[in-house]
Amino acid sequence: MIRKLLIPLLTLTVTLGGAFYSNSTVKASDNPEVSAKLVVQKFFDAMSEGSFAEATELVVDLRYPSKEKQIAKYEHYNSVSDFESMKIIDAHTENDSTVVVTFQGNVSGVESKNELYVKEFEDEWKLVLGDDDPATVAALNAPEFSTHAMVDYYSFTGFNYGRAHYTINSFSTQGNAVNLIGWQYASTDYHANVSYQVAQDSFIGWKTFGNDTSVYGNYTSAAGDRFTISLTGVPKGTDYHIRIVNWAPVSVDGAGNVYTN
User: Fold this and answer.
1) Which segments within the chain are labelled E, that is strand?
2) Max CA separation in the chain (angstroms)
3) d(CA 50, CA 171)
4) Torsion angle of alpha carbons 44, 47, 51, 56, nearest 10°?
């Protein structure tokens, strides 16, 4: 009698770090944290490989109403961040449809630990990047993207209480102080009360640096009546904007110049 040898089939186990991805979606599973880490890793891989159209399919980005603008900005984010350096550290479930993924890596030239929110949308997991604040959308969707290394100019009209606004043009710095010379005016019955802070446009969203500096009082555009402040604690980098918040009970107008070294 000839005995037949039964050869067991080998089972291929694919781990997160060396997975081969056949498409750009991650379906919901019984383990949300595994799914969330998988989609984050797929996003990092797509960005590092320059597959920006694929990267946009893995996220819900609230900042860019135009797919073309989104892809162009992702190309820029890839030029200033090292996506190959990004390592997933942890993930924890916030609720039934949201997982927070922690990673370490070089974001906009700064080695740091950050969190990403991953949510389930119609049985698919996607990263949620940025915010849909009209001030953010306005600042990041100007007709042309420009960087000013030396001087930037800003102006605002009718800023209401408590809302954050961002200058449209971005600037870079070598890690020295960012200086503002400007004016602000509320009304003859109220003093303006405005805070200024440096914020960086990163692929995650806004990142603020240093403390915000409040300027109290009305100042005019006359040469001898402007205010001068210095914003410190800003590392060398690009894609910086000024974050402006009005704390007066009435609307405020203003303008100024930004100087960097």
Assistant:
1) 59-61, 82-95, 98-107, 110-121, 124-129, 147-148, 151-159, 164-166, 170-173, 178-185, 193-201, 206-216, 227-231, 237-246, 252-259
2) 108
3) 25
4) 80
CA–CA gap between residue 196 and residue 194 (Å, rounded) = 7
Asked whether 206 and 170 are in contact (CB, 8 A), the reply is no
| C-alpha gyration radius of the chain | 23
Output the six-digit token pair for 248: 């007066």
CA separation for the pair 123, 87 (Å, rounded):
26
Q: What is the DSSP letter of 63?
A: T
Residues 6+ apart with CB under 8 A from 239: 76, 80, 108, 147, 170, 172, 200, 201, 202
∠ CA 157-158-160, nearest 5°, is 135
pLDDT digits (tens, 9 = 90+) for 155-208: 999 999 998 999 988 888 888 789 999 999 999 899 999 999 999 999 999 999
Instruction: Tell me the DSSP string of 23-54.
Output: SS--B--S-HHHHHHHHHHHHHHHHHTT-HHH
Q: What angle do CA 117, 162, 164 make, to 5 degrees?
A: 55
**Whole-angstrom distance, CA of residue 218 vs CA of residue 233:** 27
DSSP 11: P
Task: Look at residues 204, 201, 184 and name the one whose alpha carbon lies nearest to residue 244.
Answer: 184
Among 186, 133, 132, which Cα is nearest to 157's?
186
| pTM: predicted TM-score of the whole model, two decimal places | 0.78
